[in-house]
Amino acid sequence: MTPFELATTSEIVKELANRTKIKRKKIGMSQKEFAEHIGMKFSTYARFEKTGLISLSNFVDTMRGLYAINDLDSLLLSSNTELKIKW
Q: Is residue 7 within 8 Å of residue 45, measured between CB atoms?
């Protein structure tokens, strides 16, 4: 797995989709069951797992459905690293 800082945006979103798929399977739900669980169209969720493409609000719903919403809460709060702008 390529570290996110070295990955393209496409690689990152596909990796996030893959990690989501793994976590969904660990809780024992099919794609259809999970989509119903989070109130999302099956086709929208299935496309996300396949391509990594999803709206931010649907991604938040997905994280909530995986009981991982607290992971998002701390995502941008880390003050342990310096901001390094590379333009």
A: no
